Amino acid sequence: MNRGSVNPRYRIVAVIAILLGLAIPLNGLCASIPSDCVRIPVRTGAVAFSRDGASLVWGSIGGATLRDLSSGTTRVFRFENLVAGCRTFSFSPNGRLLAAVVYNNDIGYGAVAWNLESGQCLWESWTSWYVWFLSNDLLLGGGGRLLDAESGSELPSLEISEIWRVVVANDDLTVLIGHDDQRIHEVVKWEMDGLAARKVLTLPVLFPTAINDMALSSTGHRLATACGSVEIWDLANGKELLSIKGPEIIRGSDSYASTVELDPSGQILAVDWRDYDSGAKKFVHSVRLYDLATYGEIPSLLSAFNCSPPFAFSPDASQFLCLVDDELVVWNMECLVLTAPTAFYISHTDEVQVGDPIEVRVGFDDPNEDLVEVRITVRDSPSESTSLDLDQSAYQSQIQDRSEGAVALGFVLATPGIYQIQAEIVDAQGFASNPVLFAVRVHAPSPPSIIRIACPEAVINGVPVPVSVTFADEEADLVSAHYTVTEGSLNDFTLDLTQPPYADHVVGVSEGEFSFEIVPPKAGSYRLQLTLIDVAGLESEPFEFSFEAYPPTSPVIDRMTFPGSIGMNENQNGLVRFEDPEGDIVEARFEVIEGDASTIVLGPSLSFDPEVEGETDGAFRFTVRVTQAQTVTLRLILVDATRRASEPYEFTFDVR
User: Fold this and answer.
1) Closest CA to 569 of 470, 656, 442, 481
2) Residues 104 and 188 in one domain
3) What is the greatest pairwise CA distance in the chain?
4) Whether 1 and 131 share a structural domain
5) Same domain, 526 and 590
6) pLDDT in tens, 552-598
């Protein structure tokens, strides 16, 4: 919506009314209603815009008056019978016909229709107490009656129970909203199908008291009901979107909603809040506008005048009509709606530790360049709500002489919890922006925790033992890991996690893993406790892990696969199977025990690395070529990294 600037004197008057929470007429303080408003000196209970917004109709005793809003010319349409007054008006979609609900003191409620081109009264009916155009040719009457628009004759009635109040959306989506007294204050949605109606939705509420009024957006998707408070409904799914409680018009008393109206888009809601002043013995009113996109009240000039129903929005939502004292006033919305600052969310710290500042960036649009305050409302803990003075030098550089921009601010919450927070920016006139909502989790400092430790159960003393630690630390500020040795030949030790090789896996990480190695110097049982420590000195619960260190063992040759006879000058493959718990075999060493060594060639050589490091149970190959017929005996010894050797293994074969 374009909320244009207005004369500051109107703003000041409206602020007084808003801050006092009183709906008092302030005409004495305000010079006058703005000159671009249309003012009609008549007090009436029924008024409506034409479908094109060019004309306005209102009722009076014995007649209805139609005014062209551009030229100011008026036409009066008379009733055949003396009528006490009009209740509602409905224009046909093409603007040719006008129907009204009227009241006769002797007969009761009835209906009348005119041809607006000829001025002719087409018909009067005292059997239908509600009429609304469904199309150019069809009217809906009370009790579900369908009426011919030109003649008023009744067509087959809809299968709808007694209707107390009906509002109808535009012709693209005709929807009826009925209040059924026989079903205890229900709101029911009907859709038209030719001359039949089909119930498609019942709002999931039985209203505790009678519904005072209803309003429907022109799309038929959003409904407002006045029943003490005001409820906004999404008719696509029947869900309640919003409930608005009445302001305190009279101190110490709650007001109630008597009349509601939605603009055609369903984004702006007008409400007449009413309360009884027992001292003055009269009802007092407070007409207010609400922005249903932000769910906030829209500052307006209505607070500066004694406004009351009836009221209506023009079809294009550019004008709003209400009664001011004894005259109808058609306001231009740009003039009516006061300029208030606009706020929008940019960023915030969504989780902090108690005592740490919650940092927020709020964008603003303030044509008057007069922001003075940010209100922080902590919805779950009002006592922690605060306000920030934007006149302080820390903020001035961000807002001074700027109509738009962003302000960065910080505040502290002292108690752990999850909070819903509302920030509003306020200008020098006291107008608050739309609220910016966000959630923050404030928690007490929490120590790190160890999720698990991965360590082999059996190791070889003197060989490095790989240990992996998985941790969680909400503050992501681990600094050290302390190991206490409760069993085994090791001293206590501490790792500095802020240094390589650990820093890349720990610093600034809230959940992760780091690894290190332990070298047990002797065989035996080892038991250690690990404690993680953060920058604040908070310690994790100790986590215990253990392993058994065994003495190193020599490799074992399990089996040799080699034929008992080979051909001379032929390369013959052999296979050695072995076991080595440490997996550190580095040498296979062959020796010639029998035969002419000069005629025997082993591949890759008599001594070579079989390249099986890391394998605890495996095999490797070798080749033998002999250039002279003879009997050969070879011996094989396997050697590990610590120079421990296997038992010798001998095998004999013939060369032919």
Assistant:
1) 656
2) no
3) 144
4) no
5) no
6) 889 999 999 999 999 999 999 999 999 998 888 999 999 999 999 99
Residues 179 and 183: their CA atoms lie apart, in Å, by 9
How many H-runs (helices) and E-runs (strands) does the chain carry?
4, 52
Q: Are 129 and 109 in contact (CB under 8 A)?
A: yes
Closest CA to 102 of 75, 72, 77, 119: 77
- The pLDDT tens digits for 50-95 are 989 999 999 877 788 999 998 989 998 887 665 667 888 999 989 9
598 and 563, same structural domain? yes
**Cβ–Cβ under 8 Å, residues 640 and 616:** no
Residue 498 DSSP SS3 = coil
From 527, 531, 529, select the one nearest 488 (Cα to Cα).
527
**Token pair recorded at residue 437:** 């909502």
In the numeric block, which tokens belong to residue 188? 């029911």
Q: How is residue 432 annotated by DSSP?
A: B
pTM comes to: 0.52
- Structural domain for 467, as ranges: 449-550
Question: C-alpha angle with apex 185: 181 to 187, nearest 5 degrees?
Answer: 105
**Structural domain contains residue 373:** yes
Distance CA 330, CA 40 (A): 8
**CATH number of the domain within which 485 lies:** 2.60.40.10
Locate 481 and state its tokens: 């890991």
Domain boundary among 393, 426, 443: 443
Both 582 and 505 in one domain: the answer is no
Q: Is the dihedral of CA 489, 491, 497, 498 positive or negative?
A: negative
pLDDT at 185: 53
Under the banding of pLDDT at 50, 70 and 90, the label for residue 28 is very low
Task: Give me the sheet containing 85-91, strands edge to edge.
Answer: 85-91, 97-104, 108-115, 121-125
**How many domains does one find in the chain?**
5
Q: Which two tokens stand for residue 45?
A: 């209970």
Residues 196 and 237 in one domain: yes
Residue 603, strand partner residues = 623
Closest CA to 495 of 507, 480, 510, 506: 480
Pair 329, 33: CB distance under 8 Å: yes
Tokens read off for 339: 């300029």
CATH number at residue 236: 2.130.10.10
Nearest to 588, CA basis, from 646, 645, 651, 637: 637
What are 292-345's pLDDT values in tens digits?
888 888 888 887 788 999 989 999 999 999 999 889 999 999 888 877 788 988
Please identify, among 533, 550, 567, the residue that sits at the C-terminal boundary of a domain: 550
Residues 199 and 284 occupy one common structural domain: yes
The span from the CA of 138 to the CA of 132, in Å, is 9
Q: Please give the Cα distance from 638 to 645 (Å, whole number).
A: 6
Q: Give the three-class secondary structure for 303.
A: helix
Measured distance CA(646)–CA(507) in Å, rounded: 47
Distance CA(162)–CA(182), nearest Å, equals: 8
Dist CA 442 CA 434 (whole Å): 25
- What is d(CA 642, CA 205) in angstroms, rounded to the nearest whole number? 84
On whether the CB atoms of residues 96 and 115 are closer than 8 A, the answer is: yes
- Cα distance between residue 326 and residue 45, in whole Å: 11
Asked if residue 89 belongs to a domain, the reply is: yes
Q: Which among 271, 251, 268, 250 has a CA at the least distance from the CA of 260?
A: 271
Do 437 and 453 reside in the same domain of the chain?
Answer: no
Residue 40 lies in a domain: no
Domain assignment of residue 39, yes or no: no
Neighbours of 560 (CB within 10 A): 15
